[in-house]
């Protein structure tokens, strides 16, 4: 069944889209705006370099669909259901997982999770000078 986005996305096309989406620069631009045609034009141009011919509308539609599907699977998992799943959940979780409030509170504790050798190395360096 062909949808508004034209032909179905192949697994490789979706992987390439997610790879571009995982770029921190792209993520920051997407988080900060609703009018994102320009951003998806960049995404489409980058897909073109992989030999994938998609226009910005197709990229935006696929992005929205993936994001929506991810959120519904994530909320199902949070409520204890394991019946819902999706193909690219782990990849999307790596990108979108930081948006959840639970994750935000964890990131405050990042310093305590640093390996001890980091702090030791720093103090050794200080004493050398």
Automatic annotation (TrEMBL):
Location of region: Disordered: 100-129
Pfam families associated with the record: Myb_DNA-bind_4
Bias (Basic and acidic residues) ranges: 105-129
InterPro entries per the UniProt record, alphabetical: Myb_DNA-bind_4
Myb/SANT-like DNA-binding domain location: 7-95
Protein name per Swiss-Prot or TrEMBL: ZSC29 protein
Designated gene of the protein: Zscan29
């Amino acid at each position: 069944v062909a949808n508004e986005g034209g032909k179905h996305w192949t697994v490789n096309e979706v992987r390439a889209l997610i790879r571009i989406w995982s770029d921190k620069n792209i993520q920051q631009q997407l988080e900060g705006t609703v009018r994102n045609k320009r951003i998806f034009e960049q995404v489409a141009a980058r897909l073109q370099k992989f030999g994938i011919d998609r226009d910005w509308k197709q990229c935006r539609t696929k992005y929205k669909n993936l994001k929506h599907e991810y959120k519904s699977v994530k909320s199902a998992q949070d409520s204890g259901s394991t019946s819902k799943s999706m193909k690219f959940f782990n990849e999307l979780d790596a990108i979108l997982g930081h948006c959840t409030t639970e994750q935000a509170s964890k990131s405050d504790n990042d310093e305590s999770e640093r390996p001890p050798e980091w702090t030791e190395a720093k103090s050794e360096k200080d004493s050398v000078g």
